[in-house]
Amino acid sequence: MQNANKSPSSRVPEQKTRFWHDPAKRALAFQILLVLVVVGFVGMIVQNTLNNLESRGITTGFDFLSQQAGFGITQTLIEYTESSSYGTTFVVGLLNTILVSVLGIIVATALGFLMGVARLSNNWLVAKVASAFVEVFRNIPLLLQIFFWYFAVLQALPSPRKSIELLDTFYLNVRGFYMPQPVPQEGFGLVWLALVIALIVSYLVIRWNAKRQDETGQRFPAYWTASGLIVGLPLLAFLVSGAPLEWDHPVLKGFNFRGGMTILPELAALWVALSIYTAAFIAEIVRSGIEAVSKGQTEAASALGLSQGKVLRLVVIPQAVRVIIPPLTSQYLNLIKNSSLATAIGYPDLVSVFAGTTLNQTGQAIEVIFMTMLVYLTLSLLVSAFMNWFNSRMALVER
Amino acid sequence: MSNTRQLDDKVMVEMRGVNKWYGQFHVLKDVNLKVRQGERIVICGPSGSGKSTTIRCINRLEEHQKGDIVVADTVLNNDLKNIETIRREVGMVFQHFNLFPHLTVLENCALAPIWVRKTPRAEAEEIAMKYLRRVRIEEQALKYPGQLSGGQQQRVAIARSLCMNPQVMLFDEPTSALDPEMIKEVLDVMIELAEEGMTMLCVTHEMGFAKTVADRVIFMDKGQIIEENEPEAFFNNPQSERTQAFLSQILNH
Question: Transmembrane ranges (chain A) (predicted)?
C-alpha cells in the first residue's frame, strides 16, 4: 500500500527548487538577517551610551539611590524629609502614583457604571444627561481637563483665612480640603476586631443562604443582613468600648491650617479629571456590554415569570460582564498611565518626583527612566493579570 | 386524532376588543379571541399581520392600549403582580429559541423553578430532567446551548417552559428558524404536548401541523382576525378572498 502512495511522486521528474523560491528557507534567511540587524543596532546604542557617559564623567549604577535627596515633597504617605534618600523619593512617588490610581479607578468605575446604565434609561432626561456627560468628557483632551479642574476650579477658591467652612470642622480653600483626622485611642483595636468578625460572619451568611436556597428553595435578604452586620457590629464595639477615638482638628495658624487631614488641590484636580475622563469611556463600555445581550434573552427570562430585578441579575448581567471586562481592563491601564500627567500640575507622583526632580539632580537618566518604566510595566501587568483571572472566572463556556 | 373533541368550558385566555398602536401604526384592530382549556389554536397570516403581536400581548411582552385581556382568571393590567402571575402560568417558545448561553441545558430548565417557584435545587433539577426526557434530550443536559443543533435547542426551550408547569403554551413561529430536517423533531414534541391536553396558541406556517392538531385555525391580516374555523372547513372552504389568496400562495409552492 505504501508503494501505491509513493508511485505518483516517483513518476514526476525531480525538480530542484532554488532556495529563494522555497518559502521555508526564505523565511529562515530573513529571520537570520533580522536578528543580525537588531543585535548590531542594540550593541551600537549600548556602546555609544557608555562612551558618552564616560566622556561626561557620569558613573552608571544605582548608588545614587542611597544619596540624600535634599528636596521636599508636598504629599508623602510615608516618613519623608529633605534629608531622606533618593530611594525614599522613589517609594514616595510610587505610593502617590498608586494612591491616585486606586482612588481614580474606584470613582471611575462607580461613575462609569452609573452613567452607562443611565444612558439606557427610559427616562428621557436621565438618558440625555448621561449622553451629554459621555460626549463632553470623552472628547476633551485629558491634560486640558486636568488644567480646568486645577486652574479654573480649585485655584479660584478663597485663601485659607477666608476658607469655606462646613460645620466648623471642614475647611475648603485654595491650599486644599482640610478635615479632622481620627486618632485611635487605646481600646480601638476592639472595633477592628468587630469589623473582621462582621466580614467573616457576612461571608458565611451569604454562603449559608445560597446553600439553604438549594435545599429548601427559600431565600432571605442576605446582602442586607451582611451590610447591617458590617456597619452595626463595629459601631456596637465602638460604643461598648467607650468611643476610644479622638479627632485632630485642623486649626488656622498664621497663613495656613495645621493638623487634621488634607486633600491637596493637586491630588483633587488629578483625581477628579482622571475619574471623569475614564468614567466617560467606561460608561460606553458598560452601555455596549448591556446592549450586546439580545432583547430575546430579556423576553425569554421575563416570559418565565422572573421579576425585572432577577432578569437583570441572573440573565443580563452575567452575559454583559463578559463583554465588559476586557475593555474595562484597558481603561484601568490607561488611567494608571495617564496619572503621569500629574507632572503638569505638580502632583508629586512617580514621574514628577523621580523621573523629574531626581533625574534632574542626579543626571542618572538611564537608571531613573528604566526604573520608572519598569514600575509602570509592573503595575500594568499586575492589573492585567488580576483582570484576566477575573475574566476567566466569568468567561463564557458556551461552545 | 379527532378534532371534534369535547372541550372543557373553562375559558383560559380571553381577549376582548384588543387594540394596539406602534406610534401611528395600528397593529391590532379590535382583536377578539376566546381560548378554552385544552383548546389548540393555530394562528396564520402574512408577515406583518399582527399574529405574533397578538400572542405576545397575552404575556405582556407587548403592551396593548385598549381592550381587556384575561388569562387564567387573572386580569392583565399594569399591576406587576398580575403580570408576574400570568407569566408563571403561560409558557412561551420563541422563533430564535432564546436559551441562556451562559447556563447549561439543565440550568436553563431549573432556573425559573428555583427562582420563581422557590423549588429546592435537587427537586428543580429532577423536574428539569423529567421534561428533558420528555423532549428526548436528557443526554445533553450538561451541555451548553451553543453545543446543540437548532432543533435540539428548540426542544430544550419547550422543556424549559414546561418546567414551570404552565396552563397555556404560546408558540411564536417555533420552526421558522430551523433547517427542514429539524422541523419534524420539534413538531413531534408539539403534537405530543397537544395530545396530553395542553392549551396551545401557535403562530406557524406549518399547515400540516394545523390540519392534524388544531381545534381552530385563525387567519389574520392587517391586524384583524379575518376568519376562524375548524381546520377542515378552513382549508377546504375558506370564506374570505384574502384567506383564499393566502392559502393558495402557501399551499401551492
Answer: 27-46, 90-115, 136-157, 189-210, 222-243, 263-286, 368-390
- Residue A258 · residue A241 · CB < 8 Å: no
Q: Which domains does chain A have, with CATH numbers?
A: 88-138+268-394 (1.10.3720.10)
Q: What is the ipTM of this complex?
A: 0.91
For B111-153, write each residue's pLDDT tens digit: 999 999 999 999 999 999 999 999 999 999 999 999 999 999 9
Asked whether the beta carbons of residue B118 and residue A217 sit closer than 8 angstroms, the reply is: yes
Cross-chain Cβ contact B123/A398 below 8 Å: no
Closest chain A residue to B163, measured at CA: A304
Is pTM beyond 0.95? Reply is no
Query: In this structure, is the dihedral angle defined by the CA atoms of residues A346, A351, A354 and A360, taken in order, positive or negative?
Result: negative
Task: Report CB contact under 8 Å: B116, A306.
Answer: yes
Strands ordered across the beta sheet of B90-93: B90-93, B168-172, B199-203, B40-44, B216-221, B224-229
CA dist A209 and A223 (Å) reads: 10
Grid cell locating A150:
486645577
Question: Which residues lie below 8 Å from residue A189, measured CB to CB, with a gap of 6+?
Answer: none
Q: How far is CA A105 from CA A111, A339, A374, B133, in A?
A: 10, 11, 21, 49
Residue whose C-alpha cell reads 403581536 in the numeric block: B53
How far apart are the CA of A118 and the nearest CA of chain B, in angstroms?
Answer: 22
Residue with cell 427570562: A301
Tell me whether residue A271 is exposed, middle or buried, using C-beta atoms within 10 angstroms of its C-beta: 0 to 12, 13 to 18, 19 or more: buried
pLDDT for res B33: 92
Residue A237 has pLDDT above 90, yes or no: no
Chain A / chain B CB contacts < 8 angstroms: 86
Q: At what angle do helices A86-119 and A365-394 cross, to 10 degrees?
A: 40
Give the whole-angstrom CA distance, residue B92 versus residue B235.
27
Cα–Cα distance for residue pair A85/A78, rounded to 1 Å: 13
Largest CA-CA distance found in chain B, in angstroms, rounded? 55
Residues of B with Cβ-Cβ distance to A314 under 8 angstroms? 111, 115
